[in-house]
Amino acid sequence: MGREIHMFFFPFFAQGHVIPTVDMAKLFASRGVKTTIVTTPVNASFFSNTIERSRESGVHIGVELLKFPAADVGLPEGCESADLLPTSPYENYEKLLKFMQAVQLLQKPFEKLLGECKPDCLVADLFFPWATDAANKFGIPRLVFQGTSYFSLCATECMRLYEPYKKVQSDSEPFVVPNLPGDIEFNQKPTAGFLKTRCRN
What we know:
Order of helices and strands: EHEHEHHEHEHEEH
CATH architecture of the largest domain: 3-Layer(aba) Sandwich
Largest sheet: 5 strands, parallel
Strand content: 5-15%
CATH class of the largest domain: Alpha Beta
Shape: globular
Radius of gyration: 19 Å
Helix content: 40-55%
CATH superfamily of the largest domain: Glycogen Phosphorylase B
Oligomer: single chain
Strand order of the largest sheet: 3-2-1-4-5
């Protein structure tokens, strides 16, 4: 029997990046590949229940934690996700710059982790461009995860053409995007403003 393959997954610290990355890790783990998600303590808490349910069903996913250097850049402790930044545009921009500075500071501890664990492959988010250099130091192939995909562009175009969000009666009522494989549903309340802005002719 050959050596077990070990995949590292390193999502950007925002729910829209973490969720699909966790799904990818589950898919690899369900096929017998050793998988590890690298993140920070606060971000790990967002998907800990998912990891636990996977373990209960026999799918094991490891988690390695990096300390997020929030205080080093002037952010409050615990501000480890882009989703936790302020909503005020001016304040958010200032905090976002600090947040990205903190992300940059993770390169060295991440390299240390790669050296210790020596995974066979790294799937790292587009917002970690330095992950390529980190992986190269140890001869580890790096794949880039980019959240925006051809499928999302197709979904946007279908919504622009057919405007399914106009056929629901309330902000909480889901709608199906037509002419896509399967029944792809969106909930209007969190997406209506974005869709109406993007889908005007």
